[in-house]
Model the fold of this input.
Amino acid sequence: MPEPMLRQQLCDYARKLNSSGLSVGRSGNLSVRCGDDCLITPSGVDYQQLSADDIVLIDLHGQGSEKSLQASSEWHFHCGIYRSRSDIQAVVHAHPTYCTSLACSHRTIPAFHYMVAVAGGKDIPLAPYALFGTEALSAHVSKALQQRQACLLANHGMIAIGESLPSAFNLAEEVETLAEQYCEVLKLGTENILSDEQMQQVLDKFHDYGQRV
Ligand SMILES: [Zn+2]
Done:
């Protein structure tokens, strides 16, 4: 997709981040890969006022033009993901209520439901805590996402990644729904975690399904 269209898509999805309830106000940020660089939402701009020109182009080490707005303070982990995962085209980061609640109690999302496999594995991992906007947090994130398309961030929020911005965004919404369901299961007090073998069957079936569509 050409750069002007990617800029517009980022604006549309930044507003959707607010309207979907995934993140309120300015919390949360988005990026897409653009050639050898990436386009990312700016720091400190209300997404309702965001225009395509406000989107910031940076290289995969965070360097951009002095004339552009300042990139989101979380550019470290956005760039880190693009450097470590050549298959990934988009990153969505948000602080939705249920994912964030689980992340604050230092829980992963285990295989309590087969749809957990939508994030690419048998659980949705938790990246350990590090200060926001640091290379330390980026290193934790890259490790958690080595074989997954989503993770929780301890005492912070969540990240979903994908082959396009719509697919990363849809995954973020699905993971938040799973987190909400898992919080309800925890209230009931009985978790019935699917076995590795059962989850492998789901992953195999998802893989076959993916090849058909
Ligand atoms: Zn954040």
Notes: Residues 27, 74, 93, 95, 132, 156-157 surround zinc ion (CB under 6 Å). Strands lie at 29-34, 37-40, 56-59, 90-94, 126-127, 150-153, 157-162.
